[in-house]
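Colleagues,

For the teaching module next term, I've prepared a clean inverse folding example: a structure given as tokens, and then the sequence designed for it. I'd like students to try predicting residues themselves before seeing the answer, so please don't circulate the second half yet.
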């Protein structure tokens, strides 16, 4: 018997390629449940420090492969429909410098990250005796993550980094993920419009058969991405650049309480061609360099907000930093409750 959530990503015949039903009077019930914060769950399988490392969790691709597999497996057991590779902060240059690898070895390690995720999927299928295969998404973090200065949350590098430089940095890691066999790419925590547009165009030119989602890091003002551009304008613009390959656009690693203000009304006036939405926030905690993560007791759990996000049209939902496998289970349970309620509404509307 499969655990909760394993069948929830199956598209219905009434669904179009963007995750919206043809009949907009009824809400789409095909919700894809993402995993949670990989480094967060990884911490349950190692005593070694993760936060503050220049390679973050990606170091463990080299130093503790079994811990990486087990973190993936935790999320699958929790009800995630997909798992993301442990490559947010992985790059050829980063591995060459900090793991003392050759460029080929560095490239191969990114390819291997997909293999580790596949091992987790195989173990999951054996454990639950299911042929259902969760998706593997290649995590593609922003150029700023490689700078190890927090600039993926400000986008400051966009002011003086040529777009071509960013492109040449991204290309080999994306090629490695595709060579490894990911099902799609997760272009995530992108702080600036220039990098986002470059990645969306890169999909067209370099990997036209590949699907991807695009998520932004944002400011706490409820309207701007990290570098200052308007979120809704940027999101719609990027989606319109490549709607055939983008399965969803949204935000990640943002406090849950802020999500609604960013996505409310984004599809007003384009009901016949809506932007499919994805959100996977962090726990809402604050990070201090000297103290680490603080104020968890002041945050409402992520699952408290899920039904509202689904009401607003979100069809891909999960967690980011400081969300554990148990949080994914709670998100899954809220999605199931929401779907049951919507089925009742849909049935009553057809009586």
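(Answer key — instructors only)
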């Amino acid at each position: 018997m499969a655990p909760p959530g394993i069948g929830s990503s199956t598209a219905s015949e009434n669904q179009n390629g963007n995750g919206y039903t043809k009949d907009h009077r009824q809400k789409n019930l095909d919700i894809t449940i993402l995993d949670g914060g990989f480094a967060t769950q990884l911490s349950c399988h190692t005593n070694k420090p993760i936060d503050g490392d220049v390679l973050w969790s990606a170091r463990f691709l080299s130093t503790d492969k079994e811990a990486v597999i087990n973190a993936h497996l935790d999320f699958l057991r929790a009800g995630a429909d997909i798992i993301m590779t442990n490559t947010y902060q992985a790059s050829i240059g980063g591995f060459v410098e900090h793991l003392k690898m050759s460029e080929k070895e560095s490239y191969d390690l990114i390819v291997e990250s997909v293999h580790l995720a596949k091992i987790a999927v195989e173990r999951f299928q054996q454990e639950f005796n299911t042929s259902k295969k969760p998706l593997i998404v290649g995590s593609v973090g922003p150029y700023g993550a490689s700078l190890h200065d927090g600039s993926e949350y400000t986008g400051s590098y966009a002011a003086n980094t040529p777009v071509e430089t960013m492109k040449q940095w991204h290309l080999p890691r994306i090629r490695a993920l595709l060579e490894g066999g990911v099902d799609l790419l997760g272009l995530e925590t992108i702080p600036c419009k220039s990098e986002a547009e470059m990645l969306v165009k890169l999909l067209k030119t370099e990997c036209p058969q590949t699907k991807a989602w695009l998520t932004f890091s944002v400011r706490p003002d409820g309207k701007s991405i990290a570098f200052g551009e308007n979120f809704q304008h940027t999101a719609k613009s990027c989606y319109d650049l490549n709607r055939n390959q983008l399965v969803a656009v949204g935000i990640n690693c943002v406090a849950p309480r802020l999500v609604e203000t960013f996505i409310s009304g984004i599809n007003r006036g384009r009901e016949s061609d809506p932007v499919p939405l994805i959100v996977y926030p962090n726990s809402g905690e604050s990070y201090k360099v000297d103290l680490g993560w603080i104020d968890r007791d002041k945050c409402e759990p992520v699952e408290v907000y899920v039904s509202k996000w689904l009401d607003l049209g979100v069809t891909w939902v999960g967690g980011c930093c400081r969300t554990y496998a148990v949080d994914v289970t709670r998100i899954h349970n809220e999605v199931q409750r929401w779907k049951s309620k919507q089925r009742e509404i849909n049935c009553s509307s057809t009586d």
